[in-house]
Amino acid sequence: MARFDIDRFGAGVFRPSPRQADLMIVSGTVTKKMAPVLVTLYEQMPSPKWVIAMGNCAISGGPFVFEGQYNLIEGVDKLVPVDVYVPGCPPRPEGLLEGFLKLEEKITGKRRFPGPVQRW
Amino acid sequence: MVNKTEEELKAAFSELTVVKEDYNQKGYHLSCDVAPKDIAAVAGFFDERRFYLAVELCVDYRDYLEIVYIFSLHMSLCKVKITVKIDPVKPVLPTISGIFASAYWYEREIREFYGVLFEGHPNLTYLFLHDGIDFYPLRKDRIPVTDNDKRELSSFSPEQSEDSLCINMGPQHPSTHGVLRVVLRMNGEYIEEAFPVLGYLHRMHEKMAENRTYPQFLPNTGRLDYIGAMSFNLGYVTALERLAGITVPERANYVRVIATELNRISSHIFWLGAYLADLGALSPFLYVFDDREQILDVLEGITGSRLTYCYFRFGGLYNDIDDAFIAGTKAVISRIRSRFPLYEKLVTGNVIFVNRTRGIGVIEKERARKNAVSGPVLRAAGIPTDMRKLEPYACYSEMNFEIPSGQRADALDIYNIRLREVETSLQIIEQALAKIPEGPFMTPKVPKKLKPRKGDIYHTVETPRGELGIYIVSDETDRPYRLKLRVPSFSNLMVFPELAKGNLIADAVAILGSLDLVIPEIDR
Amino acid sequence: MGGLVKLLDTEMVRLAVGLVLALGFVVFNALILTWMERKVAGHMQLRIGPKEVGPFGLIQPLADATKLLGKEILIPKAVDKTLYYLAPILIFIPVIVAFVVIPFDSYLLVKDINVGIVVILAFSSFTVLSILLGGWGSNNKYALIGAIRSVAQNVAYEIPLLLALLSIVMMSGSLSLKTIVEAQKGLWYVFVQPVAFIIYFIASIAETNRTPFDLPEAESELVAGYHTEYSGMMFALFFLAEYTNMFIVSSIAVTFFLGGYNGPFFPGFIWFLAKVYFLVFVIMWFRWTYPRVRFDQLLNISWKALIPLAFLNLLVTGGLLKL
After folding, report:
1. Which of B242, B282, B315, C58 would disulfide-bridge B446, Cβ 3.0–4.6 Å?
2. Chain C nearest CA to A114, separation (Å)
3. Domain B205-522 -> CATH class
């Protein structure tokens, strides 16, 4: 049995074209060569549209940032607005699911399930 | 074979000094420094003797640039390192891409990373980089790319011709599994020519290695090939242990083999699902994920991560295995075995699948050698070469296993080889589990600051996708002077333009899928 | 009151009411089918499919439809605006017309035209026209290839489809759908004409562009095929048409081969819908089981296997009827 079925929340339909997409998950490192493509893809999506930066690479460049690096965009939010950041290298599936729920919370204003207890 | 090659090489080129090297320390048997004008003749010599060009790379020694060619044989162990020293200010060298097809891309790579001009190379344009980068990244000094060079490097544009239809497959195409871009020049639905464009995920691993200490680079290996991370981890660790002369306890070796083979199985079945999704059947993907999830659970128990493992350490492991791991591994073995009939029935027996894959993307032996194809693709072509057998690392020499091989190397053959390799891996795990000794899992005295001896090493391991070669040049500091990764997907992708020519676009997808490409590994 | 009944019984009103009902049904049917598809896919893929929105996820398609309505209508710069707008609207004509003649029950029928099947088949050619317009008007290479594939595929598969139906027409001696259903009171034609049924079913899957024949929108090759450039509600119209077409080809199969609304105990339309949705389920089952065929194989199946077989079947049928 599949464990992490995002189709439960209705997020499972796969559409290959950006024109039919609502959400862009940037799931990896964004390089300078990829940047224009990524921006085009974002602009091809019809609004309302959202972006999830998945993983440390997409959030900030992650482990690949070092002095003298020449090919990295240090964070996808320098290119397109990001709604939800899912940290991890790579994030666990539960992390991505939580990211979806966070996005839902952002859109609807209320949370589907009682979230993790805030301890701090 | 080594002696024979040495003699023949001496006979053919009397002016050369052929040095016999210590294989256990260096990873190659012979080395030889060649003058730039002779390199084509020397390459021809190895071509006649059915060597393949495993890797071509460049090292910047500041006073001179050294181009290193590693020639290797498929069926017996004989590796030769040929070096050419060239002037760093005006680096020019004759190409050997006419002799070895695999040099075609390696030379383009060296051109953009070092600025070496290969005379006679048909297409020295950007492969990984782009015109936004205005220096040669892997040079030790900052050498700017001149405007003239930049213009030459970015002069390639397949869309130029008027009356042909050019399709950009990728970098965001659903079936390239990542950010590979292939420009297809089409005639109707038939492909006239295919031009892969790489580098959309070029994360500068090789540059990073020069900026990191040896242990600091360890996590990077897991991020190169995120599906078969264990093999890359193992390759890097064993290469360094060989270079620095660290011994590994017996128990650690066995655990390494078990973990790597488990990872190999998960990689192969993951490919199976992804490949069928390429062919239009989406459901198998979820079935193999179910199986893969079991393997990930077992590995997560000992490594702490699901995907980008960093489990091996120089001289041993991160932590010891427990009974839960052994029980889990046994459960995985019986589970995967029980799933074989299902895959046989639903996939191998499916008429549409067989018709889609039979006879497309045929790789002849000669073509496989010229392009330095490796891994399951090479074995499907009828050359049963496996680094686990040919130059055993860890404790593969104590395992008893068969290497499957095919005949035609069409997509169907490659599929069959991969399924049979899962079975091979299961056998290896069973043997290792039966023989695993007690004892320490880590060598006690591994220095925190690793400073290996001066020199270089070319070390190979077998990843799920083929031969991974790691070339390290050490200058006795705690960071590598140069680290080059010969990655299997990169050389496997090199045959794709030849295979795609004259095929339908649907076939191109099927061929691309059968090569099992992992993009971060190609782009590095 | 009597006047109202009389008014309602006139042809025009009946047609108008029928069309409105058909339109309503099209939307309702698409909602049901998308839910069904996702549930079927889920269970075939070891998952459960939508479950959070509404009971058993039943409200999910409604939520999706609302979302699609709210999406920006995005018109790419390079498109041919007339064709781009026309295509999704045009794809709806055959869909609506088909509902006029399909007998849901002996009385639930908008209009019993004596050449019913001809009407459906004639109008169904509009589908391929609108796909071609959409693909061409989008000014996108993937869309264009998808459209070209669609035309070749539809031309190839319309012939065996017609021939298969023709053998039933010969047996029943009528082109009216109702008459054909009535003729199956005793024995369903599927038992008399199994070959024709198989040919029809394969051809109809190809006509509706479903896996294993979904080449015009093969996502692993052509991204999204002919509707790559369509977004929001315009894409939803294509989507709606695809699901309605599934319903229509299944209902023709039921009408011609599976006894239409005939069946014991329950009212006719329940039988009809049950049979139709069963066939739709089979089509979905195919989709989540099979890989996709290649383009040349697709055409070979039609020209080299289905068409000769259909002709042979027709010949045998004719010969036996003559005897």
Report:
1. B315
2. 14
3. mainly alpha
